[in-house]
From TrEMBL:
Residues 3-88 form the Pyrroline-5-carboxylate reductase catalytic N-terminal domain. It comes from Reticulibacter mediterranei. The keyword Aminoacyl-tRNA synthetase does not apply. Pfam families: F420_oxidored. This is Pyrroline-5-carboxylate reductase catalytic N-terminal domain-containing protein. PANTHER family: DUDULIN-RELATED (PTHR14239), REDUCTASE (PTHR14239:SF10). GO terms for molecular function: oxidoreductase activity. The keyword RNA-binding does not apply. Keywords: Oxidoreductase.
Amino acid sequence: MSYAIIGLGKIGTAIAQAFAHQGIEVAVAGRRPVDALAAQIGPSLIPLRVEDAVKADVVILAMPFAAHREIARAAESWQGKIVIDATNAFGVPSEELGGLPSTAAIAKVLLGAKVVKAFNHLLADVLAQGPTTPQGGAAGRVSL
């Protein structure tokens, strides 16, 4: 199974670090070059163009919500892909969402993809810390 993260802002970087800590290869891409940040995070991150990263089996959307239509056009087909939506639609008028939750609006343009919402319920710095025990201590690295 292949993985890609589109967007290396705070959330995308935290997710990329979890992959890197486990030594799992993951493609990373963004609207701006991500080569330097990917190299800084770890050798299991493969910087690609968005058009190439969306070919992965599992695509994590960690870019601004407004870019979802552009990302949708980057893939020839979304059929059978798993898409993890980590975007936030803060400030997006409900009319623009067609009365749908933001993830449903994204799923509507990613025809054939299985879309699930994840990761955006935590602040990026909390996500970057990895899991903790009920006593508040670190439980080790996030397993992906």
